[in-house]
Amino acid sequence: MNLSEAQIVIEGLIFASERPLSVQELAEIVELDPSAVESIVERIREYYAPGALLIRNVGGRYQVVTKPELSPWIEKLGRPVVHAPLTVASTETLAIIAYQEPVTRAEIETIRGVRSDSAINSLLDRELICEVGRKAGPGRPILYGVTEKFYAHFGLTSSDELPLTGISEWK
Predict the structure, then answer these.
(1) 3-state helix, strand, coil in the chain (%, to 5)
(2) pLDDT > 90: what percent of the chain?
(3) Which of 74, 101, 119 is a domain's end point?
(4) What's the CA angle centered on 129, arms 127 and 132, to 5 degrees?
(5) Is 135 within 8 Å of 141 (Cβ atoms)?
(6) What domain range is 51 assigned to?
């Protein structure tokens, strides 16, 4: 497969996939070196830049999305864009999980100083967090972490992009 054919295939894969795809996944499918795939994805991103679509990097994986400024028109299609803000409790809980992951409910509640059941359930429903395992020890409590949807929602590609101010007291 030559590079122009690979570009068409990669663009189609990113567009058709129900989930973001990593460079490694794309490289395996098109049987090219990951660095060549990264270069192709960058060309596709540049191609889409002036238009309505974006190839967004979500936690090191790529997906096609519409530009945020198009949301008023997309809403008119009957596909409303969710604008419901997070509550203060959910925002606090999400921040703790993002910075401390993997973290248990008890650890979250120790940091917040209040019960966090409702906030955790709300974040799970919004798919901003997920269960990432169980902690060793009595009761084997659930460990929580953030999801790819979290990174997409906040326009981040990884936890390395989280701001570092004001959280040193959490450690």
Answers:
(1) 50, 15, 35
(2) 54
(3) 74
(4) 120
(5) yes
(6) 3-74
